[in-house]
UniProtKB/TrEMBL annotation, chain A:
Keywords: Membrane, Transmembrane, Transmembrane helix. The chain crosses the membrane at residues 7-29, 35-57, 77-98, 110-129. The lineage of its organism: Bacteria, Pseudomonadati, Planctomycetota, Planctomycetia, Pirellulales. The keyword Membrane applies. This is Transmembrane protein.
UniProtKB/TrEMBL annotation, chain B:
Keywords: Membrane, Signal, Transmembrane, Transmembrane helix. Residues 165-193 are annotated as: Disordered. The chain crosses the membrane at residues 720-741. The keyword Zinc-finger does not apply. Residues 1-27 form the signal peptide. This is Cytochrome c-552/4 domain-containing protein. It comes from Aporhodopirellula aestuarii. It comes from the Bacteria.
Amino acid sequence: MFILVRRICLAVVLVAIVVLVGTSLPTWWGGHFGGYRLLAHMTASGMVVVGLPLYAVLRWTDWLSAPLPSRASTWTFWALVFTGFLTIASMFACMLPSTTTPWMVTLIDFHGWIGATMAVAAIAHLITCRRVAAA
Amino acid sequence: METCKNILGIVGLVGALLACTHASSSAADGSRRFAHSDSDKRYLHHIDLYDLNNRKITPDSDQPYSPKNTCGRCHDFETISHGWHFNAFRSHTLRANAEDSATAKSDDDLEHAHNETVFDGRPGEPWIWTDERTGTQLPLSYRVWPGRFNPESVGISELEMVRQFGGRLPGGGAGSRDERPQAAEPSDDAAPSRWELTGDLEVDCMICHAVSGAYDFELRRDTIGSENFAWAPTAALRLGEIEGAIARLKEGTDPDDPKIQSKLPKVKYDATRFGPDGTVFMDLVRHVENNACYQCHSQRTVTDGVGIDEHFVHDTDVHLRAGMKCTDCHRNGIDHQIVRGFEGEPHSESFASMTTLNCVGCHLGTDFYLDEEEAERSVTQREITNRPGRMGAPMPMHEGLPPLHFEKLTCTACHSGPVPTTAAKGLMTSLSHGLGDKAHRTGSELPSIRGPLFIPDQPMSNAHSDVGDSDLGETHASRVTVARGMWPAYWGEIRDGKVIPLSPEKVYAATRRTLRVRRGFIEEISKPKLSSKQLVEALGDDRAKIDASEYTPEETAKVDAMQFEAGSALFNERVSASLEAIEKELGIEQAVYVSTGAVYARAEPKAAEENAEDAATTDDEDAADPANLLREISVDNPDAVSMVSWPMAHNVRPAGWSLGATGCLECHANDGLIFASTVTPQGPAPKAGEAASMASLQGLAEGDRQVWNQMFGGRKLYKALVAVSLAVLALLMLAGFATAVGRSGNGSSGSESPSGRAA
């Protein structure tokens, strides 16, 4: 049961990351972030906010009792958790009514870069997990 | 010896030529040809006055003083007179000259064609030709701005424009003969030009530079109203009394007729204004005082059903409260190209620092919109004058405001204009409603201007086209700004499917007998005063006699409905008759009346006749539908009948009064004023247009907006969820780290531990 939930969580996070990257791509070339693209980005971010901690807790608690997967899988897991934390935190900071415009610009820039890194970590984690499963 | 003489002669000639060239080139900016005081102190002007013929004025003179011949002795009048305000009635001349130079075939042609740049910039308030008698509010401009009509294309002459609007024009442009378009050679039997009688409305330096109280704007307007254009500067300074009025002389009067010469206005100078040396003290300042600006740039708000809002409820612009003057930002050099203060306004290279004289420039710096790389390359890194904080401008933090807002909104959208309410209010401006004149205003006078509107800003124009053409220059990303708007109302004709306004003066002459309006189109036709009998019918005997202010809401609704019915019937009858009269008298195939976005034409003759017969033979009210006398038609140039808008920049409200100061939900809620407030098209016709929300004017679908609003509605909950999520992830990372440390402390290689591996 837990395995199913965990897999669903990972699937949700991965789908959300695909949406997040897809919707933010035009801004990498100076595009405008608004309208339905921003709406989709915000909806997907909600999926990550809920799905990532849930997946992380289930994954980690599972590892505490189960035989360990590969070293690579562990590294990518923590990379996903860490970059996910920073991505969510930078978004959260922007939502606070105390962040000034220059800070917000910096945070948004950081959010973009760390979000991209998170996407890479997520892909890497998926690949390493699948290798473990195949083995 | 002879050779030496020749060489010396050539050298002398070259030297003289160089000197002339140098003098003429430096004269353009007025820096060398004229003496300067070059001090911050005020220079006292005890000066001789000169008349139009360059004769010195004495207390015994009877001719008006000429600012050009008086001020122009020491100041570069030629350069000054082409400034922004003076060009208001000159843009068409410049444009024509620019076209001449573009099509010039020879050097000789080019010599005659000036090549001044025509840049009309951001759309401003139009000159609204208002005639209460014919229900006309026609937006005009010589500048090419959307929705405005070029007076020439409407058949309004420069003289008529100066007569109508000269009281709010500082002179120059079409008011001066040097600046008017070159007329074709007049034929011998042509009527003499009335300009010969009125004289020129010269650029009047004192209208702005006189100290507050030294210049009588009211008297100037009256003098211009009497068509004593050339006498206006003298009258306004109260240098003497003007006797006589050109307005009393008939059209076509010959100015060379000796009898007429004796009737021309004469000045009786006040001898006490002249010093012992014959000079007159001109009490003036270099930096123009706010009072001079208010003359043409004041505004009042009007609450529907109540009237003009009291003066004391209005707050001053925060910049003025901080001790600034209008000219601190709206400044100019000798060319008098006053800084208008909008983003993207071009300035000459030598005045590059003027680019910071707008909201963003002063408060955030010119690099604000640049990305990191561009900012590093930008001049701000090198030029101190391009940094924010000019004149002590505070730097706004905009805490919690996503930068996306700066791409979607202008600064003024949130910070400027009257405090917005659920519906746009009525607005009265100096230029359109003659604020400053002593009058009994109610707030319902034409033109009907509404605001604040939150609409996309319009592209700046540098085009050479009239209304209806789409050549409006380079477009830029449109942002929502705060603006005023009005719906044109005029009489026009249909030509090739397009509506074209007719000359208001011709329309008045043609419709006098059919419209039968003495004072106002609205109170006599669209909203006629109900008779006692009608009031009794609507309210009963007892309530019919009470004052309208004591009506209950139901009674008000009943009276309004009855007034609307009566007004509609009168409107149909008289407008239809007037359209017929215009068609006959002006030889037009199809005349129309435009108001509140609708175009009214006469009903098809057959339908109208049948309707009239029905009305005569039956008592059945439904059968005699008065609406059949008129019909609404569509035209191929809807821009000519739709809303005309222009942005407003003042008054700037304090930060705490800006939109969004209390958080996201102030705007991103279903009742957020920047989206949900409405504006109702209003004009002289009884039928008001349908109220439109600002969101619809911004092109936003209501459904989309509501989806967004729902997201903002749950923002607090989402923040809490994110906080929990971050806390869980943080705890997990700590736990993972602790486990890893613990495992490594136990000597584990980590081969069985995830944390150990991670460590």
